[in-house]
Amino acid sequence: MEMKPLLPPVTVNGVTISPERIAAEAQNHPAPKGKPGLAWKAAARALALREILLQEARARGLTADPAELAPGQWETEDEALIRQLLDQAIAPEPPDEAALRAIYDAHPERFRAPSLYEAAHILFPAAPGDPAARDAARAAAAEVLEELRRAPRRFAELAARHSACSSKDSGGLLGQLSSGDTVPEFEAALATIPEGQIGAPVETRYGIHLIRLDARAEGAVLPFDAVLPHLREAREKAAWVAASRAFTAALVARAEVTGVSLGADAEGGAA
């Protein structure tokens, strides 16, 4: 009987992370079928990094003060210690308003109010995990699209006959739509279909859509003062992520770790 090689023990500064803990953690790290070793390595890395952060928190004399995440749901002591450590250790520089202004001035067209659309559609339903239904929906959509190209004015009639959306009772009309009102694939189509035309079939989680764009009103460029709070928040988040990665990488570089490589985690930041 062939013996499987034993995995090397995973230790962090002399503290061993048991195989049982790694196996349990591996359930949180999906891996391709037939490659359970990838899940094990990801779990070992996550636990080793967690141990490094906890050791640093204890070395600084921190005492866990769990926060309430939601009504009746509290952090674990380990989660609290890691949060408190990062709160104490990471203090990135606040973003400079002149730098934010330069970002805005370089591409003001990126900062627009939501666009508005008036559209109609015909939905051929098909679940994402049902290939046969998706193929049938594509075929039906292609057939109806050919009819619409010959006779676009039949859109309402064909929507009433074929659409699985309640809008079929009003000729497929969806009323006025704004950014975020529809799924991303549908919204992307609205942004590209010429006004007054029917676009190519669009696939979403609901099935296949034939979309007619009746009108588009592109959002106006927002003034800098309106954009500033969002720019500041985005830059603060980016600065915090960069600082947390640098802090974690420094801890990893000083730690003595065996049994797993933490090179990728040092760049990926704390988790």
Using brief descriptors, characterize the structure shown.
alpha+beta, 3-stranded antiparallel β-sheet, 9 helices, extended, disordered N terminus
Q: Which word captures the global form? A: extended
Q: What is the count of β-strands? A: 10
C-alpha end-to-end distance = 41 Å
Q: Which percent range describes the beta-strand content?
A: 15-25%
**Uncertain residue segments:** 1-5, 265-271
Secondary structure: helix percent: 40-55%
What characterizes the major β-sheet?
5 strands, antiparallel
Mean pLDDT: 91
Number of helices: 9
The helix/strand series, from N terminus to C terminus, equals: EEHHEEHHEHHEHEEEHEH
Rg from Cα: 27 Å
Derived structural class: alpha+beta
Overview of the structural elements:
- There is one protein chain.
- Strand 1 and strand 2 form a beta hairpin.
- The two termini are 41 Å apart.
- The strands form 3 sheets. Strands 5, 6, 7, 8 and 9 form a 5-stranded antiparallel sheet that branches. A 3-stranded antiparallel sheet has the order 2-1-10.
- The protein has helices at residues 19-26, 36-59, 77-89, 97-106, 131-150, 155-162, 184-190, 224-254, 263-268; strands at residues 10-12, 15-17, 68-70, 73-74, 116-125, 173-178, 197-198, 202-204, 207-217, 257-258.
- By secondary structure, it is an alpha+beta fold.
